[in-house]
Design goal:
Blueprint lengths: L4 E7 L32 E6 L7 H4 L2 E3 L19 E6 L2 E5 L5 E5 L5 E5 L30 E8 L5 E4 L6 H8 L17 E7 L2 E7 L15 H4 L7 E7 L8 H15 L8 E6 L7 H13 L3 E4 L8 H13 L14 H6 L7 E4 L5 E4 L1 H9 L5 H13 L2 H7 L7 E4 L2 E4 L4
Helix pairs in contact: 8-9
Subcellular location: Cytoplasm
EC number: 3.6.5.-
Pfam families: DUF1967 (PF09269), GTP1_OBG (PF01018), MMR_HSR1 (PF01926)
Amino acid sequence: MFVDRAEIIITSGKGGDGAVTFRREPYVPEGGPDGGDGGDGGNIIFVADNNLRTLMDFKYKRKYEAENGQNGMRRKKYGKRGEDLEIRVPVGTMIIDKESGLLMKDMAHNGDTLVAAKGGKGGKGNVHFKNSIRQAPNFAEAGELPKVRTVILELKLIADVGLVGFPNVGKSTLLSVSTCAKPKVANYHFTTIDPNLGVVDLYDKSFVMADIAGIIEGAHEGMGLGIKFLKHIERTKVLIHVVDVSGSEGRDPIDDYKKIIDELRKYDERLLAKPMLVAANKIDAVCDEEKLTEFIEFVENEGKRVFKISAAARQGIQELLNATINELDNYVEPEAEEVEYFDFEKDELDEDFKKLKAYRAYDGAFVLEGKQLSKIFRSTNFTDTGSMRYLYKFIVDRGGIKMLKKIGLKEGDTVRIEDYEFEYYDD
């Protein structure tokens, strides 16, 4: 099964907690602090791999977690860093942050990498909190929490040439006789329900050709296989529009040609700026020569070159492929469209990290929140006076008490931080 879209949840590793330990030495208060720092958590890293062709693996596994950092140890020993988790995706996969809807990276080349979620930093051991007043700190810093992110993986095939046209016009047959690909071929509509790729070797050159599954009227709105496969045309350099000119099914080739062009235009008008060759297929089974002549004249008046072929009988294939090579040799890459990318620097900077937020809860308690506050709170030893003072000083320095009083905090009121509640009394 060809899967070209998936949604997964990635979680980087949590930073290890700093250690609270003391040396065993005479004449040193409490033996002296010697708690080591925690190790950083592992990163989530995407890697583009040209050995992969589908996002099938992500259909069955949706959660990916990197290793947590190890906690710090005595004698100022650092905790071990968590192992990174590499997630391999097919070349051509676009990685999108679901929350913002912004593109994180287009994995367009083999070996491309993306650190999509950085591991949390390890917390500092209690040795860092010693000062002239606090000789034996009985607390350390908690490791940073992991980064949890939902990302959308969207695969757009990397191919030089795309075969487009209605179902059952001979695209799969053309691919099979031009390359070593073995697509399913049969005389009924929608034989191809997955895109097929093949490599054309011609003289000393080669290119990748993709059989894009049959487009029908209304495809740009999701009819039939719709947008699921129209998007795979976007990366191609040259289009070969395959039209059944035999009239064997009572179809009008001019009408078919117009409808496919219209669907491409409605999906993305830029597709029509790509070089397009028209393959008048099943020429060996033409029922009406007059209609064939009308079709060729119509297409040529549209500024397109027509190649009379029979994919099944292998007629005219060489001339079509020669022209395709020539178009690829003369291809000029259009200017890239401006895309708004996910801002990793802003994400890492987190300007609101040290800010506090105060509000009154539905039950009357006064709530204080903040990312840095949460980290210090998780590091607090509530049985140690020095640790409690460290927490209180942060709250006061950041204006937390003033904010609470501004919304009505009085002595005896309940203050809530995380899941901890206490009564407030003014000093």
